[in-house]
Each structure stands twice: as C-alpha cells, then as structure tokens.
Amino acid sequence: MNVLIAYDRCSTCKRAEDFLKAQGVSFQKRPIKEENPTAKEIHEMRERSGLPLKRFFNTSGLLYKSMNLKDKLPDMSEEEQEQLLSTDGMLVKRPIFLYGEKVLVGFKEKEWLLALGKSI
Q: What is the mean pLDDT of residues 71-75?
C-alpha cells in the first residue's frame, strides 16, 4: 500500500494529496504529527531514497529554527539525527510519499510525475 505521510494544515501536503488523487494513485494517509516516523523508519526511508539525511529535516520549520539545528546537525551522528527526527513530526520534511520501493520527500510535481512513470 502507498502511504502519504502528511500534515493536514500544510498547503504543500494538501497539493500533493490533490495531485495523487488527480493521477488516480491510491494511498493511505498517515498524519505526521500524530504518527511521526520512528528512527528506524527514517533510517529505512533514507536508505531506500538514497537522499542525504538533511533532506528529511523541515529546515523552514519553526521548531528547526528555534532549536538552532542548522548549527547543531553537523556535530551529530546520523543515528542521533534519525533519533531527533523521530521525536517530533514538525521536524520532518513533508510530505513523504512511500510509493512501492520509492520514497519521495517534499512535493515537486515533476519529480513525482517521473516517479509515477508519467510523462511531463
């Protein structure tokens, strides 16, 4: 089953959800604030996506900024960063779309179209 990990009050998440519906893609929605990914899930998503761990942080979020993570992350191990991400869904970049073996982080329509096997 495809899973869209999103935040209901996020306009980008809403656009991603509308996009998937318009493309006829079925998915289960998972609220990131209530069901934040675990450190293990973050690790597995990062491995599957091939993306750097920094891409999983919501760098424009208030919590990220208030915790001064821009300066702290370089001194943290990947395990510590994954553990930190698992503490609060507002630290995690959203939406995250688990589509088969693919993991898409953040909504970029062209990137998502390609991942779905659609032409641009």
A: 96
